[in-house]
Amino acid sequence: MKRVALTLAVVLFAAVVTDSATTKKPSDDEMIQTTIAAWSAGLTEKNVEKFLTSISEDFTSDQAEDKATLGDFIKDAIDAGYLEEGEVTLADAQYTKEGETCTVYPVDLASAAGSVSVELVLTKKDGNWLITGMSVDGL
User: Fold this and answer.
1) pLDDT, tens digit, for every residue of 69-82?
2) Residue 131 has what DSSP assignment?
3) Is the pLDDT of residue 20 over 60?
4) What pTM, to 2 d.p., does this model score?
5) How far apart are CA 124 and CA 96, in angstroms?
6) Where do the domains of the chain lie, and which CATH numbers do they carry?
7) What phi, psi does 134 have (nearest 5°)?
8) What letters, b where the CB count within 10 A reaches 16 and e where it falls short, cover 23-33?
């Protein structure tokens, strides 16, 4: 009986070690894409909470001094109907990564209210890429 238990323990340990060795951590590029996808989905779905998951606590911009202010701005835009028929297009976006920072421009936003181009600045902190800055053309 001890031999069966020992054999089972060895097999389970080997399975865990093998799974850990084959589980690949997402690349920086994949993490950047995931962050931008959450940001885009939050806007198009008009979901402020989802949108804010992509925003760093260190966020600042000319349009909003911090994450909370940005959240209020997006909520007000949703309530006013500015994000109706919202679309985010990354077709022309250029990604420029330098160390722990990546800029993405242009990110084109269109809605019933009109269209703008946005530059996003993402920063890697504690192993995660989050949006730390944003500049909207024309604002």
Assistant:
1) 999 999 999 999 99
2) E
3) no
4) 0.81
5) 13
6) 26-136 (3.10.450.50)
7) -155, 135
8) eeeeeeeebbb
